[in-house]
UniProtKB/TrEMBL annotation:
Species lineage: Bacteria, Pseudomonadati, Myxococcota, Myxococcia, Myxococcales
Keywords, alphabetical: Hydrolase
Organism: Myxococcus fulvus
Superkingdom to which the source organism belongs: Bacteria
Name of the protein this chain belongs to: Amidohydrolase
SUPFAM superfamilies found in the cross-reference section: Carbon-nitrogen hydrolase
Pfam families tied to this protein: CN_hydrolase (PF00795)
Secretion signal, residue range per the UniProt entry: none
Annotated CN hydrolase domain residues: 4-252
Length: 279
């Protein structure tokens, strides 16, 4: 098992694929030069459309996706692991999949995951999101096998459903990926606390590469790509001002240390109810 050094790429995605792919390639090479051997990108890595119609008009099938081909080429060229946080993949009619990939150093896809939970929300500042009108929800949880242990896959809104990350940890995950495109209002209120909570609850390392800044259509994302330890410590934070990358060296022994100190994954108990009692 080699030393794990993650490189999280923080992206300000445009609504055209080519410039986003070029930026990811540039930043990936910089992260690799800084020692990273596992590069990770955010949700919507290669496209953030101005609106639903714009997004759907630019979706392509997996076998022709330039973002996937680029990541596979980078992984093979440099002999490193690569996580595509997510890309939009054409799968059916008027909707697509929001799909994450783990790619090995041979450039092979060893695992893929479709986002299960759709961000359908109306925020207090008036922002309105209906992911279910664009994306077909996934139906399966995934743990990918890597040289550093099991990697439980999630995407953005999935982090609000702690039972999913707990199920991944109980299935063998010691690393969790939660690539995201968090809004500024929800990010400033919840981003750090949710990711730290998911790490603490599972005793896993959490990696959350993120989108940042102003995008087509007026959407703003929060940034702050994070690496969090199994004890809930923030090991790296890319900040909320600009795209780029951040690296962190991971001490895998900390998973066992945290789980030995707080072995809650083994303390689940069955219970009745909830009973709703009348006063």
């Amino acid at each position: 098992m080699s030393k794990l050094i993650v490189g999280l790429i923080q992206v300000n995605a445009r609504n055209e694929m080519a410039p986003n792919i070029s930026f990811i390639e540039e930043q990936a090479r910089k992260a690799l030069a800084a020692g990273a051997n596992f590069v990770m990108t955010p949700e919507n890595s290669t496209l953030l459309g101005a609106n639903h119609e714009d997004t759907l008009s630019k979706v392509v099938a997996e076998e022709h996706h330039p973002g996937l081909m680029s990541a596979k080429g980078l992984a093979k060229e440099h002999g490193v692991w690569f996580l595509i946080g997510s890309i939009h993949v054409k799968v059916e009619g008027e909707r697509c999949a929001n799909r994450s990939y783990v790619i090995d150093p041979e450039g092979r896809v060893v695992a893929w995951y479709d986002k299960i939970h759709m961000f359908d929300a109306e925020l207090p500042n008036g922002e309105r999101y209906r992911e279910s009108s664009v994306f077909r929800p996934g139906e399966r949880a995934v743990v990918a096998r890597t040289p550093w242990g099991g990697l439980g896959m999630g995407i953005c809104y999935d982090m609000r459903f702690g039972h999913l990350q707990r199920a991944l940890a109980r299935a063998g995950a010691t690393l969790l990926t939660l690539p995201s495109s968090f809004t500024v209002p929800t990010g400033s209120a919840h981003w750090h606390v949710l990711l730290r909570a998911r790490a603490i609850e599972t005793g896993c390392f959490v990696f959350a590469p993120a989108q940042v800044g102003l995008h087509a259509g007026g959407r703003r994302t929060y940034g702050h790509s994070l690496v969090v330890s199994p004890w809930g410590e923030v090991l790296a934070d890319a900040g909320g001002d600009s795209p780029g990358f951040v690296t962190a060296e991971i001490d895998l022994a900390r998973v066992e240390e945290a789980r030995r100190a707080l072995p809650s994954l083994g303390h689940d108990r069955a219970f009745r109810g909830p009973e709703v009692l009348e006063s």
